[in-house]
Amino acid sequence: MTDWLPVLVMFVVAVGFALASLGASYLLSPKKATPEKLAPYECGIFPEVEPSQRFPVKFYMVAMLYIVFDIEIIFLFAWATRFNDLGWYGILAISIFTFFVLETLYYVWKKGVLDWNIPRRERYLKQDLTKEAA
Amino acid sequence: MEIFEIVTYFVLLLLVSTAVRVVTTSNVIHAAISLVFTLALTSVLFLLLSTEFVALVLVLVYIGAVIVLFLFGIMITRAPLGKNAELDNDKNKKLGAAIAGSIFFLFSYILVNGFDGEVIITSGSSTELLGEILLSRFVFPFELVSFVLLAALIGGITLARKDEALIDEDQV
Amino acid sequence: MSIELIISLVKANIVLAVLLTNTILLIWFERKVVAGMQSRVGPDRAGPFGILQTLADAIKLLLKEQILPSKADRAMYLLAPLIALVPSFLIFMIIPLGPDITVEWQNALYTIPLVGADLNVGVLYFLALSSIAVYSVVLAGWSSGSKYPLLGGVRASAQMISYEAAMGLALVPVILYSGSLSLVDIVNSQSGNLSSSIPILNTIVSFIPKWNIFPQFVAFGIFFIAAVAEVNRAPFDLVEAEQELVGGFHTEYSGFRFAMFFLAEYINMFNMCAITATFFLGGWLGPTFEGILPPIFSVIMPIIWLGVKTFLLLFVFVWIRATLPRLRYDQLMELGWKRMIPLSLVWLILSAIVLGLREFGLPWS
């Protein structure tokens, strides 16, 4: 546990530094707030619409895929520290595991989750055509 | 170890307070961030038990990935920020309390009875031990994990893609 | 107070001082190098060669008003700069700066390792802390209550998690060599020179140090590119793409809160380079010229070597920034998921098999 003592002390010192400098800045800086200054940035005009709270579902898929790889990385680390003891057996086991993770990536790839631009452009074009037809 | 116990109880107290904040706050993002703090404190608890590997895996997977997924989930569904009458009513509160209570008792039962008060003290770093156990005794479940992950992703994609076109319409 | 606590306090304060002065130097270095590459002079007024320019900027930011936007979510808005800054200090703690030094004090010998904290899960600690950095970006973006920060924040978080996966995968081969997650062990595993079983080849390669970059050049490339993306530097700086997103996630931040993001970015950049040097370039390893130089240099030389390697990598960071145009978002994500991650997985299995052949012989024998 003593290994972690410097980390804890550094945490306290870093938070202390951040708060102290923020406090110093608070004391030294002017405080002249106006409604214009506090308004969200929009090149000098008042924004008319609220920022959208909705994002493409792609971001969600990326986060999901990241979980898979995160777990993979942790298993790989656990294996890598015992590489010399596990020998070929370990390499085989991890290769099978990696193969399935690659297969997952392949599936996701073919499903188009990793394409960020092409399908959108296609859909956009399709949309315009239907509008014209109507 | 006097100090050790004081620190442990202090961490536990903080843990409970952040956990209560997760369920009482009406803002979803605040709840998610409180959950981050809860998990961070849990990881500190694991550190106090000298299981460094588990502690950091908790930070890496849960804080680094799962809660980020939650945040993205909140952002893609136009979650109402603030009070929501549909969710925040007495009926749901009772249901939630019942579910939380039963999970709590189930977990306590498993934890108390599952280990029979047995204390497992191991020598050496927990990482290497885990690597060895994972690839020897638990090699089959380990390989199965990759299938579970694949299944989860297929499920996620199937659910997400159903109304992707709808979401794309008012894409930012 | 125990001796450990005093040592930890001293270490923490040294790290704080080193990182802060180093950031001042680094920002000046970057501005000068970029200016040179663009045939400009760069900062040259404050102090000799303009070296105090950053200090002047820091004082200016300290004196500026801290605006709290009316649409902002107060608690999260104030929390985000702290989440950005604190992990960047913590990451530096695990970088070994040199071998253990022995000091004699009051007739007793003390061995002080020249590393903030030698954790035996160091690599995981590094990855875990860099994954926390995502929160500062996403919280700053969301809590500002403005559209540009929100867009920048969501973009950045997806970018950071994508490249963190590639980064973690590129580190696994390094651990195969060291057999440990501790950074001190990783540096020690790179000491000595390369050797080969073929005699003629051996005479050639025995002059090359046993740094991980030579056998693991692909992993090094992946790690370095991912490191640039992870700290959101050009050409991966879509987070703060000025032309389209104003300032990205920190658009609504001003005064010292903005300075904290800025500080965190440069400290992270420095950390990334020092960590890359530790993982792939042998860290503090290098000739200490013992016997030629006075004995104090055996303590200082490792730190100088690490500094030289780190600043070499930092120069590459700045060079890339001055040279390459920014990537488009789809290019960025496709590079991460379709190129770097499959490549790093395949490379990992290949190097495991090659290492296996060398260590355990043929699988059927």
Task: Please give a structural write-up.
- The complex is a heterotrimer of chains A (134), B (172) and C (365).
- In chain A, 38% of the residues are buried.
- Chain A has 134 residues and is mostly helical.
- Chain A has one domain (2-133): NADH:ubiquinone/plastoquinone oxidoreductase, chain 3 (Methane Monooxygenase Hydroxylase, Chain G, domain 1).
- Chain A is built from five helices and no strands.
- In chain A, helix 3 runs antiparallel to helix 4.
- Chain A is flat.
- Chain B has 172 residues and is mainly alpha-helical.
- Chain B has a domain at 1-88: Four Helix Bundle (Hemerythrin (Met), subunit A).
- In chain B, helix 1 (2-24) runs antiparallel to helix 2 and helix 2 packs antiparallel against helix 3.
- The longest helix of chain B is centred in the middle third of the chain and has 25 residues, at 52-76.
- Chain B starts with a helix and ends with a helix.
- Chain C has two domains: 1-63; 70-360, no CATH class.
- In chain C, 64% of the residues lie in helices and 3% in strands.
- Chain C is built from twelve helices and two strands.
- Chain C has helices spanning 3-37, 53-63, 74-92, 122-143, 147-178, 183-188, 199-205, 217-230, 242-245, 255-280, 297-323, 329-360; strands at residues 101-105, 108-112.
- In chain C, strands 1-2 form a two-stranded antiparallel ribbon.
- In chain C, strand 1 (101-105) and strand 2 form a beta hairpin.
- In chain C, helix 1 packs across helix 11 (297-323).
- The radius of gyration of chain C is 22 Å and the shape is globular.
- At the A-B interface, helix 3 and helix 4 of A face helix 3, helix 5, helix 6 and helix 7 of B.
